Backbone:
């Protein structure tokens, strides 16, 4: 079958790019001709960046909003350019060769029919979070004509939060569109309730597509020089938003464990720091999990890859980015206690018995089988 994968536009985001690659890889291994549907019009236009930055600075310093973080990497154009350059190269190598680009809903409506997709898979990532997906109805396949025979399904689609963000009008339209789907699955357990109560649709709960592959699949992405090199430290720090509270937790972990740390993210070095230290290629990010003895993160996919690589971790739950994703993932593997929000919790957590990775992997293997079977059934395989 010719299958299109529709997710949020790809950019300098490790987890977002890897979840798209993972889902496409799984579908190809099932024997399908897989294409990425690139919603290019959603990319942030360069002329908007100064306004976005000004808004964040105003919120943080003018209105004293402590939940808004203005990171050094965000404000430093040279660092961000490095990050985007690495991301573009990964996308070009692993996703772009099988991509169709669209700039408007009208173009989608006109040209998807000509592309003769047998099926379109919506997901994963926060495709059903309106503030992340302008014209969210596109992610409910509103551009597909009712006369099209294309199979409609979602895989691990996410609302990103357990709070309802749709307007009454959006709720009504998206409910009608979702009822046309052949199969619906979501990434968070809370999302099954939202689908039932808000859309009157039953949804299956499945794992993020990155979890359908194993650690070796990701290590194969590493070029020879990355496989041979090793990170300088034992504690891998991957934080999307840095603030004093997280620094306090990091200091407590370092004091308790005695580990040296290495940081992989924008804004972790000066202007002359090498690319490998500031927002490095995705391959170096993956290598960070391979090399770590411990991980501290506030990222959903930071949790995912800690689990994939069987690395003990602590995650700082980020309410602004949405806690439902973390809670659903961690509870699935009986790891809810790994999420904390204060330094005082570090000592208590590190004194608990180590993670039983055999039990975790047993759960993961069962969830992988469930996710793959959902795709097989939904695509008529």
Residues:
């Amino acid at each position: 079958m010719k299958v299109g994968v529709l997710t949020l536009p790809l950019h300098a985001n490790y987890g977002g790019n890897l979840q798209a690659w993972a889902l496409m890889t799984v579908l190809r291994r099932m024997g399908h001709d897989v294409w990425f549907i690139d919603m290019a019009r959603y990319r942030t236009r360069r002329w908007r960046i100064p306004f976005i930055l000004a808004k964040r600075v105003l919120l943080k310093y003018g209105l004293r909003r402590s939940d808004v973080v203005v990171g050094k990497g965000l404000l430093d154009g040279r660092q961000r350019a490095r990050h985007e350059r690495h991301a573009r190269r990964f996308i070009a190598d692993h996703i772009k060769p099988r991509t169709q680009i669209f700039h408007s809903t009208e173009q989608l409506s006109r040209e998807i029919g000509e592309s003769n997709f047998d099926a379109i898979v919506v997901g994963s990532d926060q495709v059903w979070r309106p503030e992340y997906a302008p014209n969210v109805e596109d992610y409910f396949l509103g551009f597909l004509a009712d006369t099209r025979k294309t199979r409609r399904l979602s895989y691990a689609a996410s609302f990103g939060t357990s709070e309802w963000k749709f307007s009454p009008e959006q709720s009504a339209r998206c409910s009608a569109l979702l009822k046309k789907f052949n199969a619906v699955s979501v990434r968070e357990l809370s999302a099954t309730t939202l689908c039932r109560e808000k859309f009157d649709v039953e949804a299956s709960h499945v794992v993020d597509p990155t979890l359908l592959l194993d650690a070796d699949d990701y290590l194969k992405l590493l070029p020879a020089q990355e496989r041979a090199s090793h990170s300088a430290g034992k504690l891998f720090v991957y934080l999307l938003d840095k603030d004093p509270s997280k620094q306090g937790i990091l200091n407590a972990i370092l004091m308790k464990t005695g580990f040296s740390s290495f940081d992989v993210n924008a804004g972790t070095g000066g202007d002359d720091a090498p690319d490998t230290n500031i927002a490095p290629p995705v391959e170096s990010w993956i290598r960070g999990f391979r090399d770590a003895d411990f991980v501290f993160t506030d990222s959903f996919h930071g949790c995912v890859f800690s689990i994939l690589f069987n690395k003990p971790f602590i995650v700082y739950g980020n309410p602004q980015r949405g806690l439902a994703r973390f809670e659903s993932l961690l509870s699935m593997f009986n790891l809810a206690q790994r999420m904390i929000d204060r330094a005082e919790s570090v000592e208590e957590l590190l004194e608990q018995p180590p993670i039983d990775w055999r039990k975790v992997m047993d759960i993961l293997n069962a969830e992988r089988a469930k996710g793959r079977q959902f795709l097989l059934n939904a695509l008529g395989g």
